[in-house]
Amino acid sequence: MSSILNTVFCSKLSRFHNWNNNKDANRLRVPTHSVSTPPTLSLTRRRLTVRAADTDTNEVKSKAPDKAPAGGGSSFNQLLGIKGAAQETNKWKIRLQLTKPVTWPPLVWGVVCGAAASGNFHWNLEDVAKSVLCMIMSGPCLTGYTQTLNDWYDREIDAINEPYRPIPSGAISENEVISQIWLLLLGGLGIAGILDVWAGHDTPTLFYLALGGSLLSYIYSAPPLKLKQNGWIGNFALGASYISLPWWAGQALFGTLTPDIIVLTLLYSIAGLGIAIVNDFKSIEGDKALGLQSLPVAFGAETAKWICVGAIDITQLSVAGYLLGAGKPYYALALVALIVPQVVFQFQYFLKDPVKYDVKYQASAQPFLVLGLLVTALATSH
């Protein structure tokens, strides 16, 4: 991870096609006609500034700013780190935005599922305190680290798709971003070590899980591997990070992590792959510009949306079949009952327009998916 500190402070962006000569540094315009001179992006020690090439303003039509709030964005969205966020100058609010708190709940829930699957969690003060500390490690610390790191290495793509985000807009300096990455990483690893001592582990299982997850996050976002460049590998790695790793942490904290649980949760991570694809649709423009082979880019939006829902639904049905074969028909039936509303919302929102309804679909369908995770965890604990 030390390579983060060696990030070059002056870099050039040569992959962008077209730019508008706009004096407002907080807005980047993507023209509909090509121009001959590529733009440059300069990182100073305190501020990131985008300089656009000269072109005919009459031939330019902005696309990216349509996704940004025109001075009337939501402060609530800003704190959650989702699109439609208000522009903010308060550095602590900007730092929180970079960690994307909206992404924490699946990790927190994963810890709950792991604790439930262990069969050794008890509702006493010590176990509750352990689980809360494990949730802080998985959510705010290591997920916050992952999201900040991803935004840092995605600053070129965000300059196309979401130029109003904190890093490409210059609302936060590069030194402040890098210091946040290190603080969250070391905080998460430190908490993992404390939990190992608290749980009496001879082998620091939680520390190894946290370290492995952090490394996975790094190679997912950072060159030269940058797993997210490949839609299949990158999205599966993301799904495993959101489903398998927190489950393993919760189960290892209170019990024993067994091979069958590792296989089952990795299978469930295929559903996480589908969830990850949902977020790729809004980045098609930037992914194409920078050569990232997300599934919507590789297969087209129409095919990719069916791959997405297929991965989510078929995975859960397979797990339901596993539970039925394991002699747990009531758990299998409960899981199927939770799949039905997900399919309904897929047809109602996502399959109609995966870009327009991505947030609404996830807010409607994902609660049923995470409840299915808990049903599976409870089934494996008996």
From TrEMBL:
Pfam (any one): UbiA
Broad class of enzyme this protein falls into: transferase
Keywords, sorted A to Z: Chlorophyll biosynthesis, Chloroplast, Membrane, Plastid, Transferase, Transit peptide, Transmembrane, Transmembrane helix
Signal peptide interval: none
Chain residue ranges for the region called Disordered: 55-74
Gene Ontology cellular component annotations, sorted alphabetically: chloroplast membrane
Family that this chain belongs to: Belongs to the UbiA prenyltransferase family. Chlorophyll synthase subfamily.
Gene3D superfamilies: UbiA prenyltransferase
Keyword field contains Transit peptide: yes
Name used for this protein in its record: Chlorophyll synthase, chloroplastic
